[in-house]
Amino acid sequence: MLDATLKAQLQGYLAKLAQPVEIIASLDESDTGRQMRGLLEELASLDPRIGLQYQRDESDLSPAFSLRQPGREPHVRFAGVPLGHEFSSLVLALLQAGGHPPKVPSELVERIRALRGPLEFQTVVSLSCQSCPDVVQALNLMAVINPAIRHTMIDGAAFPEEVERRQVLAVPAVFLNDAPFAQGRMELADIVERLDRGGERAARVALADKAPYEVLVVGGGPAGAAAAIYAARKGIRTGLVAERLGGQLLDTQGIENFISIKETQGHTLAAGLDEHVATYAVDVMSRERAKALVPGGEFLELELASGARLRARSIVIATGARWREINVPGEQTYRNRGVAYCPHCDGPLFKGKDVAVIGGGNSGVEAVIDLAGLVRQVTLIEYEPRLRADAVLLAKLRSLPNVKVLTGAQTTEIRGDGERVTGLRFIDRASGEQRELALAGVFVQIGLVPNTDWLKGTVALSARGEIEVDARGQTSLAGVFAAGDCTIVPYKQIVIAVGEGAKAALGAFDHLIRTPLAAAA
Q1: How confident is the model at residue 447 (pLDDT cuts 50, 70, 90)?
Q2: Which whole-number Å values give the CA distances from 158 to 30, 33, 35, 179, 514, in the listed order?
Q3: Could you tell me the domains of the chain?
Q4: H helices, E strands: number in the chain
Q5: Sequence-distant contacts of 230-233: CB under 8 A, at least 24 apart
Q6: How confident is the model over 36-56, as pLDDT tens digits?
Q7: Which pLDDT does position 202 carry in this prediction?
Q8: Greatest distance between any 2 Cα atoms in the chain
């Protein structure tokens, strides 16, 4: 199953094992079982410290395998074959079970050790989901650190009955002691804070005690990372506050137009940005959401949703954008219950079913192309009389036999049975006739909306809610700069956001040297 190059890379990683690891496998004669056997036998052949045993498990989740240290109970389990994006989760779990120390702050490790159990986590994933590995790896690590915690990764495609039983329509879906716990991307610290509220309060107090920054960047995507790096390179006190490092990159699949990198994936580029920021003296505060910008006085103030306040002489706003919603009845009711925004993550959950994609631009047509290989039929619904995607995408679209295109169609309602999506209503704009489609899922792909709601009344915004900036990234408020997809700068592209972030940081630095602290006071 593993080619020679990958085996050589794996042997290099496995050399970091500090102690033996045992794999306990419960297999069957299904295709998945045979595939799992082949993978595990290849892994065991790469390093003598990896032992492989077969032990029939009477639970419903088989084929599956667990990892353990010799003489101990297993706490990390994989139900299904962890290939695709989850292969890295398997490699990390092997290393951590084998005693390789994780790259986690010591204070976070102590908080994990202090958690009381039993805590039995299960995470339903899709192997094509870029967000799932972060959650799987975080929970695996917690299970290795704390003996009161167990975690099982469940491949939804391999166990459709589990998906149906748990009514999972979006991944990653995390369950704690068989009850819903969380859905969507989460980092290790996010999970710990949900379980340890006392630690969360201590973190809020620590934020409030921080000294003022000369440049404070708000947002952790490409624009925010570039701004933080350029500011830190000037030798000035720089902070970066963000809900998640990586921004929209974490929801992006393939990237082929970032200059000098022929081809990469969103989460890979996001990891590179994170590593680059970490090489500089940037005070990074993740999992924090901006609530308000307070001008005036000696320093600008940034109020966070947690209640803490940060002070800075200048601020660079790079909060990016989020998926635009269609705002029709049923969208919020059935969000993550048939209404989805990421075809890469949630598409496999609709295998063999009928779905619709709303939006005829590049993102909408790309979603249709991706879904066509999974679902029974996909219907593309576009409000305008014609599709707006690039010609190469339209040519591919026309070649797909299980795709139906409806143009001049206005979606009016997403329908459901109280539990999940069952259909969609739309109006034929040419005839005025109302029609209905029976569907299992609806993927919304109609563009982005800037994350600027928290800035209304503080800085000038365009009619679309984008921050108005000048050629240097300066906003209408002195000392406040902005960059990236949250601004009026056209063409929302990663490479443009990076350049705009650098420019805004340079603009902030120029503002600082022209506004001495004494004069500001």
Answers
A1: confident
A2: 10, 10, 12, 21, 61
A3: 4-195 (3.40.30.80), 210-321+449-520 (3.50.50.60), 339-446 (3.50.50.60)
A4: 15, 27
A5: 230/501, 230/502, 230/505, 230/506, 230/509, 231/282, 231/316, 231/505, 231/508, 231/509, 232/280, 232/281, 232/282, 233/280
A6: 999 999 999 999 999 999 988
A7: 62
A8: 77
Confidence bin at 521 (pLDDT 50/70/90): very low
Angle at the Cα of 135 (from 357 to 141), degrees rounded to 5? 165
Dist. CA 367–CA 358, nearest whole Å: 10
**String of b and e for 442-458 (b: at least 16 CB within 10 Å)?**
bbbbbeebbbbebbeeb
Task: Measure the CA–CA gap between 521 and 508, rounded to whole angstroms.
Answer: 17
Q: Is 242 exposed, middle or buried (0-12, 13-18, 19+ CB in 10 A)?
A: buried
| Percent of the chain predicted with pLDDT > 70 | 97
**Where does 387-478 show beta strands of DSSP type E?**
403-407, 409-416, 421-428, 434-438, 441-444, 448-450
Helix ranges (H only) for 23-68 are 31-46
Report the chain's mean pLDDT, rounded to a whole number. Answer: 92
Q: Specify whether the CB–CB gap between 482 and 495 falls below 8 A.
A: no
How many Cα neighbours within 13 Å face the side chain of 274? Answer: 15
Segment holding 164, helix H or strand E: helix 160-166
Burial of 179 (0-12, 13-18, 19+ CB in 10 A): exposed
Per-residue pLDDT tens digits for 457-467:
999 999 999 99
* Range of weakest confidence among 1-15, 166-180, 364-378, 487-501: 1-15
pLDDT greater than 60 at residue 480: yes
Please report the pLDDT score of residue 54 as a whole number: 93
Contacts of 113 (CB under 8 A, 6+ apart): 145, 146
In Å, what is the CA distance from 96 to each residue of 64, 130, 189, 207?
Answer: 19, 21, 18, 31
Report residue 107 as tokens. 């204070």
Reported confidence tier of residue 250, pLDDT bands at 50, 70, 90: confident
Residue tagged 């940034």 (tokens) = 302
Residue identified by tokens 């990372």 is 225
Q: Contact 175/191 with Cβ under 8 angstroms?
A: no
Nearest CA among 35, 28, 20 for reference residue 58: 28
125: nearest Cα among 92, 152, 95: 152
| Cα–Cα distance for residue pair 449/443, rounded to 1 Å | 16
CA distance 63 to 154: 10
Per the confidence metrics, is the pTM higher than 0.85? no
Omega of the bond leading into 172 within 30 degrees of 0 (cis) = yes
Half-sphere exposure in the Cβ direction for 264 (13 Å, CA): 16
Pure H helices in 249-325: 266-278
